[in-house]
Amino acid sequence: MAPGSTEHGHGHRHEHGYQLQPTTSAEQRWYAQTAEQLIGPPDRLVADIGCGEGAMAIELARVLSTQGKVVALDSDPEVLDLATARISDAGLIGRISTIAHDLTAGIEPLRGVLAGADRSGRVPRCTMRATSKG
């Protein structure tokens, strides 16, 4: 293991002391195109699981209606701090909520956040759509 690197119990290591890296224009286009393909007119709540620095969450929020919400989840609080900075820079605070949670510890905290974001008190119908940037 490299100095400063830690195992977080989910199969990969992270280097700490993160710095926000600019998203390249090619990456930004990929995120925007993928968000366009994933979001449909009835969608109003989207969860970005493993959101990293938030680039996809931002594009998802841009594609959703103005009443739509994105919940961005990552297990690393330092990475979520960077995501929050990027979300703020994009002017999307209030449209994207972040949550630090490792899903290997269970899904209940996420279910609660999703139910709260939906504002109906019930967990909305979910459609899983996986993306792989590659």
Written account of the structure:
It is a single chain. The strands form 2 sheets. This protein has a 3-stranded parallel β-sheet with strand order 3-4-5, sandwiched between helices. Strands 1-2 form a two-stranded antiparallel ribbon. The protein has 134 residues and is of the alpha/beta class. Strand 1 and strand 2 form a beta hairpin. Helix 1 packs across helix 2 (55-63). 35% of the residues lie in helices and 16% in strands. The model is unreliable at 1-14 and 121-130 (pLDDT under 50). The two termini are 25 Å apart. The relative contact order is 0.16.
CATH architecture identity:
3-Layer(aba) Sandwich
Q: Ranges with pLDDT <50 over ≥5 residues?
A: 1-14, 121-130
Reported for the largest beta sheet, the result is: 3 strands, parallel
Distance between the termini: 25 Å
Helix content: 25-40%
Spatial shape: globular
CATH topology description: Rossmann fold
Give the neighbour order of strands across the main sheet: 3-4-5
Q: Give the domain tally.
A: 1
What's the total number of strands? 5
**Structure classification:** alpha/beta
Briefly, what CATH class?
Answer: Alpha Beta
Average of pLDDT: 76
The Cα radius of gyration reads 15 Å
Beta-strand residue fraction: 15-25%
User: CATH superfamily assignment?
Assistant: Vaccinia Virus protein VP39
Our count of helices gives 4
